[in-house]
Amino acid sequence: MSEGVSLRSGGGDGFAASGGEGAKERTAVPSASPSPLSEATPPKAKPAPPRKKGPRPKHVPQRMCIACRSHDAKRGLHRIVRTPEGRVEPDPTGRRNGRGAYLCGQASCWEKALASGMLARALNVDIDIETMNALRRHAATLPLDSSAAAGATRDRIEGGNR
């Protein structure tokens, strides 16, 4: 090396080697437990994947039907709410205060939830007969899929594609 040229070591240890007279000499100091990794350079981190351009996809909240336990978008299920006053009512907006439970659009799920006490258990409340009848009347007004109607619709769609 020529005098007056300063080189920095790539290890990042802060020592500079120069060819001049005042250069310090490094000596290896044996450690208590020799390790082959002690002399190696630290592993480099993986580069971050390239950022995707464009708008972020919209988050769609998911909920589960208490009867059949199928997952769907929050707006695709029907919400029943226990209000802070203790009444059990349908919640068409999905925004009312209180504890909520969700049912899908199948008539069998509504009947199962109302008959077996699943809805009462999900809402942590005892549901009286009047409220149960009001919920059955509400379910009758909804466009629910019955198992026979769902099967007939599926057969008609598959038959049209043949």
In DSSP terms (H or I, runs of 4 or more residues), the helix count works out at 4
Q: Write down the Rg.
A: 35 Å
- Head-to-tail CA distance between termini: 83 Å
Strand content: 15-25%
CATH class of the domain at 62-150: Alpha Beta
* CATH architecture title of the domain at 62-150: 2-Layer Sandwich
CATH superfamily of the domain at 62-150: YlxR-like
Q: In one word, what is the shape?
A: elongated
Which residues form runs of ≥5 with pLDDT under 50? 148-162
Q: Could you give the order of the helices and strands?
A: EEEEEEEHHHH
User: Major sheet: size, sense and barrel closure?
Assistant: 3 strands, antiparallel
What's the mean pLDDT score?
78
Indicate the structural class. Answer: alpha+beta
CATH third-level topology of the domain at 62-150: Hypothetical Cytosolic Protein, Chain: A
How are the strands of the biggest sheet laid out side by side? 6-5-7
Quick structural gist:
This protein is an alpha+beta fold. It has four helices and seven strands; from the N terminus they run E-E-E-E-E-E-E-H-H-H-H. The chain has helices at 107-116, 118-123, 129-141, 147-160, and strands at residues 6-8, 16-18, 62-64, 71-73, 78-82, 88-91, 99-103.
Describe what this molecule looks like in 3D.
This protein is α+β, with helices and mostly antiparallel strands and 162 residues long. The protein has 4 helices and 7 strands, in the order E-E-E-E-E-E-E-H-H-H-H. The strands form 3 sheets. The protein has a 3-stranded antiparallel beta sheet with strand order 6-5-7. The protein has a two-stranded antiparallel ribbon with strand order 1-2. Strands 3-4 form a two-stranded antiparallel ribbon. Strand 5 and strand 6 (88-91) form a beta hairpin. Helix 1 (107-116) packs antiparallel against helix 3 (129-141). It is elongated, with a radius of gyration of 35 Å. The N and C termini lie far apart (83 Å).
